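Chain A, query sequence.
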Amino acid sequence: MEQIESRFAEVQAQLSDPVVISDRVRYAAVGRAFRALEPAAKLAAEWRRACDDAAGAQELLAEDADDAELRDLLSASRERLGELEEEIRLAMVERDPNDERDVIVEIRKGAGGDEAGLWAGDLYRMFSRYAERRGFKTEPLSAGEGSYTFEVRGDGAYSVFKFEGGTHRVQRVPETESQGRIHTSTATVAVLPEAEKVDVEIDPNDLEIDVFRSSGPGGQSVNTTDSAVRITHRPTGVVVSMQDEKSQLQNKERAMKVLRAKLYERKVAERQAELAAARSAQVGTGDRAEKIRTYNFPERRVTDHRVKVTVHNLDELLGGALDELTDALQDAEKRERLDVAAAG
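Chain A, predicted structure.
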């Protein structure tokens, strides 16, 4: 508790230090440290109060052992102390170093034909609304035919969106289904922490860059100029294509941003396989049996299979109300990290 309180007081002092304030990079880092420590500091303050309540009740009981109200207060204070100690341990678990990063999200239709493509679009809208609710900014990078790639920017974007990587399964009656039969379709989601140029060194000689004419929406330049760009990273075989912008340069910049994120994720997965799954593990094959979450429209029910949590607010969830599931997944991740730390 003393370490938490001391470190939090130190960070608070730095936030009002003119020297720190004048250094934008340092001030941002101190701000992140403050946000990371604040939950534990609040819990530590509550722990102090619970200790005082328990000590006071114990002292008064020594004078009047028959006071039932004091015995209840002492019992409740001790119980809350145990709960707070567990909560503080979870709050102080070392975070994923990528949690503060922006992210690039890729959504692809899986099994289910045209319905899978429609479902991919529903997920894109759900994630966009969720980002807006969290105060993040989104920027579409490419879209078309059941495939969506977009960027989410904001402090802690990866800490929220990383749990969405995997296969999302939907059970509903398609609009084209005349018999009213329920169909099962899937869409796959990959969540990539955005990489800076210093994170991944890309040798230009390792790139094969092709240009071609766009085949989808994009204005007057579609099918008239070679503005679309495909970049292949020869050492890894990773391929990224962009065609939504009219400018070949803009498409190339977007493709390089996505390529850099994919290569960075590979690098992280190799270095810390137990903490960051590789993209192939997130996405899988899109088969109906591989799923992290099921959205059942007839019963308005959503189940996250990783934490065995079921909610019955499908409409709100599709409108971006993902916080209950995110909170459960974040708590499970903290407990897993705590177990790993204890075992180590």
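The first strand starts at residue 103 and ends at 109. DSSP finds ten helices and eleven strands in the chain.
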